[in-house]
From TrEMBL:
Keywords for this protein: ATP-binding, Cell membrane, Membrane, Nucleotide-binding, Translocase, Transport
SUPFAM superfamilies named in the record: MOP-like, P-loop containing nucleoside triphosphate hydrolases
Protein's UniProt keywords contain Glycoprotein: no
UniProt entry tagged with the keyword Transit peptide: no
Region (Disordered): 1-24
Organism: Amycolatopsis alba DSM 44262
Gene Ontology cellular-component annotations: ATP-binding cassette (ABC) transporter complex
Family annotation (CDD domains): ABC_PotA_N
Taxonomy of the source species: Bacteria, Bacillati, Actinomycetota, Actinomycetes, Pseudonocardiales
Protein name: ABC transporter ATP-binding protein
Source species, domain of life: Bacteria
Occurrences of domain ABC transporter (ranges): 29-259
Length: 364
């Protein structure tokens, strides 16, 4: 389902991440002042967020940053200590899970082992006393959606891990929820299958047009799959944006460090090289490395000299650790197009376009 590219507005560093009104329709999810305390632990510490219908939205953050607790509050498994949750304009903050138009897919997708795939998918409808013919039809549609139309008669133990995860997805989709919550659903899969499922899940989301809210601590996964990402840190959202915005323009040193690898230049090094005080972020792949020190920097480029202290070969890429003469350390990542250049112990000139080093607020 196509959706309008949302405009985010951030009021200060920890302000409201809201979608500019498009003049019609409520967001699929609206969170205001959401808090959750477990005794002394402030698991969620004031979250404001709007998610428009049809979006693939990821909550990304380190372990313990509060993303699962936000998801569980949306699902109704936890009640907020303060704040409100609206689903399509309806305040559901204090409703039981089954009174909310959401479904959750967990990492440990407990399927009933004695039931067939078809029966597993039908189960929720049976509980709701949906008539048999409709149940069959809807389960068949859900299985077709997750490309398991031919597997209805199998038992879960006759399926691969990825197929079982797709049954779990079908079991949620069969209820036709307005919002689907996914809590690290690919976490139990090996890396290769995980990559395949990332592409499939994204395609399924496009096909069904349901709002997906996806919790992960894997930044690659969030960058690959999402329309927008919220980056969590210590119970708060540090930034909401498209993958490109979050990666290319991190709003804080925390986001720069958590989403991808970032170099941070500060103190004397920053003043000497960039000419301004503050903390500056530079992505390692934006930096060129050159053994010819006599070559002047190109127009529009910043440059610095240094010594290569370490070379890390990683197959498709090679990383150089460079100690700068002006103070500080930078990692440089280059595509391994030919034999990796051997700069180890050597003197090099690093250069990057001015706009690729940008200032980030120090405290996350
Ligand atoms: N039921 C609970 N009782 C007490 N503390 C809890 C409970 N649930 C979560 N917490 C605490 O709240 C904080 C946020 O936890 P949460 O599970 O939301 O983080 P997360 O970002 O999803 O982490 P992970 O990626 O490890 O799942 C943590 O400090 C956690 O220990």
């Amino acid at each position: 389902m196509p959706h309008q590219a949302p405009t985010t507005s951030a009021e200060g560093e920890q302000g409201t991440f809201a979608i500019a009104s498009d003049g019609g329709g409520d967001p699929a999810i609206r969170l205001r002042g959401l808090r959750k305390e477990f005794g002394q632990v402030h698991a969620v510490d004031g979250v404001d967020l709007d998610i428009p219908p049809g979006e693939f939205f990821s909550m990304l953050g380190p372990s313990g940053s509060g993303k699962t607790t936000v998801l569980r509050m949306i699902a109704g498994f936890e009640l907020p200590t303060a704040g409100t949750i609206e689903l399509h304009g309806r305040d559901v903050s204090r409703l039981a899970p089954f009174d909310r138009d959401v479904n959750t897919v967990f990492q440990d997708y407990a399927l009933f082992p004695h039931m067939t795939v078809q029966q597993n998918v039908e189960y929720g409808l049976r509980v709701k006393r949906v008539p048999r013919a409709e149940r069959r039809q809807r389960a068949k549609e859900a299985l077709d959606t997750v490309r398991l139309g031919e597997f209805g008669e199998r038992k879960p133990d006759q399926l691969s891990g990825g197929q079982r995860q797709r049954v779990a997805l079908a079991r949620a989709l069969v209820n036709r929820p307005k919002v689907l919550l996914l809590d690290e659903p690919l976490g139990a899969l090996d890396l290769k299958l995980r990559h395949t499922m990332q592409t499939e899940l994204k395609q399924i989301q496009r096909d069904v047009g349901i709002t997906f809210i996806f919790v992960t601590h894997d930044q690659d996964e969030a960058l690959t799959m999402s329309d927008r990402i919220a980056v969590f840190n210590a119970g708060r959202i540090e930034q909401v944006g498209s993958p490109v915005e979050v990666y290319e323009r991190p709003a804080s040193a925390f986001v720069a460090g958590f989403v991808g690898t970032s170099n941070l230049l500060s103190g004397g090094g920053a003043e000497n090289i960039i000419g301004k005080p503050g903390v500056f972020s530079i992505r390692p792949e934006k930096i060129r490395v050159d053994a010819d020190l006599s070559k002047p920097a190109d127009v529009g480029e910043t440059s610095a000299t240094g010594t290569v202290t370490d070379t890390v070969y990683a197959g498709a890429t090679v990383r150089y650790e460079v100690t700068l003469d002006a103070g500080g350390q930078l990692s440089v990542v280059r595509q391994n197009t030919a034999e990796p250049a051997d700069f180890e112990g050597g003197r090099v000139r690093l250069s990057w376009r001015h706009e690729h080093s940008f200032r980030v607020p120090e405290a996350g």
